[in-house]
């Protein structure tokens, strides 16, 4: 995706200036760039290099995943105060979760309270309660479940090609829509036919 953005930027520049350029896009460079937010947080003293010791990696009780009664999972991300309050009210956990949201000393007890509460209902019961509200919530879906989720169905996020379910092409264009052309080939147990096609 970085290469596509780079080539498009270079094409726009070449069109405007008449001068071409090399677009250098290394995968490790791109992966590092995706961490910009976290390097910024580290520089600001808001991030440490320990697992589940930071705001959005599992330390905060209001941003993480929780196991439900049926061993399925839900994810919450109620960082903003209004969404946190809605989470507290929807789960009826005012006694356990109210107080200053960013009080890190209270996070372990609040995380335990949320874990205990989520364990009382199935994932689908939580979905029935929270979907359609502004609680920052989502079910954690398996690869089998994701194509059948109502949002993904409505958006056409997945397509079936040759009996195989695949993500539909993105981005979507109004004038030149894309479409998946063929399903993936089954794993080759015998490398000879594959190599012979390549070697011609």
Notes on the structure:
The chain has 200 residues and is of the alpha+beta class. Helix content is 41%, strand content 10%. The protein has helices at residues 2-17, 27-34, 36-43, 81-91, 94-97, 107-118, 123-130, 150-155, 191-199, and strands at residues 63-67, 73-77, 137-139, 158-161, 164-167. The strands form two sheets. The protein has a three-stranded antiparallel sheet, with helices on one face. It has a two-stranded antiparallel sheet with strand order 4-5. The longest helix has 16 residues, at 2-17.
Short overview:
The chain has 200 residues and is α+β, with helices and mostly antiparallel strands.
How are the elements arranged and paired?
Layout: H1 2-17, H2 27-34, H3 36-43, E1 63-67, E2 73-77, H4 81-91, H5 94-97, H6 107-118, H7 123-130, E3 137-139, H8 150-155, E4 158-161, E5 164-167, H9 191-199
Antiparallel strand pairs: 1-2, 2-3, 4-5
